[in-house]
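[agent] plan:
  1. take the single chain provided in the ticket
  2. run structure prediction with default settings
  3. attach structure tokens to the ticket
  4. add a short note for the reviewer (M.T.)
[agent] executing step 1
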Amino acid sequence: MTEQADRPDTEVLDRHAAALDLFTDRVHAVRADQWDAPTPCTQWSVRDLVGHLTAEQLWVPPLVRDGATTASVGDAFDGDVLGPDPVTSWDTAATASRAAFREPGALDRTVHLSFGPTSAAFYCGQMTTDLLVHAWDLSRAIGADETLPAELVDFAVREVTPYAGELAKSGLFAAAVEPPPDADAQTRLLALLGRDVRA
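[agent] step 2 finished; step 3 output follows
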């Protein structure tokens, strides 16, 4: 995947923090009767979606702070990572992820992902885009405001456009859909990552 090398670290960290805050807001808005509700990710319920994002945050400290590899972490974060209190589990994982990326020099490190070694800054950008798009999924699933912050949309478009096709091939996202001719930036981003907002 192509790395974005021309972004200041402060922008990456600020956007990551904003995306974490957005997803956190949506997790806290989930009602007790909505955890089994369907989401635009057709195989996932709301609980599954939040569990997926929670597991992703749990990966950050070992990969970024400890220099672990995906092989050495293994299946530590497989299965149910939410337990009886999904909101607290999310909050704990998100706090640890934020702290790991914000350690001095963290974005200058190399992380060992499933597709090979890459920069922590690139990994942080990927995580930001993933948080943003899944915040939309969660918003739609629970009936919350689906509007995504414009600065996060712009960041994600720049981040993901060079490798969007590879994401679809990997199975991480659905294949791109054709956006409406008059689509705004948010709709184009979501379409690029397989979301049809009219569905």
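[agent] step 4 note for reviewer: The CA atoms of residues 34 and 183 lie 30 Å apart.
[agent] ticket updated
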